[in-house]
């Protein structure tokens, strides 16, 4: 028995030592951005840090807790000279990080006053395979949109430099959110992408559908009054926000009809219930014929 135990234990100890060494490397917070809906963005730099789209890191802030490590998806693109995370303030630890960064104060915070941060990672996820497909469906629920922020930023950079070498030809992006304020921090990225694709006469490259799943009577009246305006009243995008939840069966059938005989990557970052639905739709809408359309399902749960 000891022969079977010693080998895995040795590998485990080596892995823990590597992770400890990585977590001791100096991390510099270069910028803290306060977004609406109790969300902050931390932009950081670390020597030798390399990432791919959709990856995540573990973060520790000794000023808040000396032992707690929390996972956060990277929202920056590999092409940027920094890496960033978006933190939504929903608990004691995130509230402590919010205060430690001076976000609760009105005056400008000096860089040397920002807390020390330890980072372990990055670690891989299914989202890394986005660029291996010609057609993809990206589905984010609430704050689960964060890995796709990295993907869409990387797409934007690749388009700016050399779009001809990009295998990815079509993106169907779905974002489901309960509250209108959550759209605000992400809408500017979509606006940049929208403008970029129109300048290059390739507006069809990105099809995005934003669904608002919760609203009250006052908001509903406001939406009706401004529905005929050129840009959406919530996001400021030309594509209007949809209300309710998507009919996934119709969405899969429509996409399958547009891309016959292709492999379509389906990427989700969201709750388990939505993952079950998309997995069933991926299976039921894939053809038995190897030359037919096939949906390949990938997920991250939170």
UniProtKB/TrEMBL annotation:
Q: Which domain of life is it from?
A: Eukaryota
Q: Which InterPro entries match?
A: Cyt_b245_heavy_chain, FAD-bd_8, FAD-bd_FR_type, Fe_red_NAD-bd_6, FNR_nucleotide-bd, RBOH/FRE, Riboflavin_synthase-like_b-brl
Molecular function GO terms recorded: metal ion binding; superoxide-generating NAD(P)H oxidase activity
Q: Where in the cell is it found?
A: Cell membrane
List the taxonomic lineage.
Answer: Eukaryota, Metazoa, Chordata, Craniata, Vertebrata
For this UniProt record, the keywords arranged alphabetically read as follows: Cell membrane, Electron transport, FAD, Flavoprotein, Glycoprotein, Heme, Ion channel, Ion transport, Iron, Isopeptide bond, Membrane, Metal-binding, NADP, Oxidoreductase, Phosphoprotein, Transmembrane, Transmembrane helix, Transport, Ubl conjugation, Voltage-gated channel
Task: Tell me what topology the record assigns in the membrane.
Answer: Multi-pass membrane protein
Cofactor(s), names only, from the UniProt record:
FAD
Catalytic activity annotation: NADPH + 2 O2 = 2 superoxide + NADP(+) + H(+)
Keyword check for NADP: yes
Q: State the protein's name.
A: NADPH oxidase 2
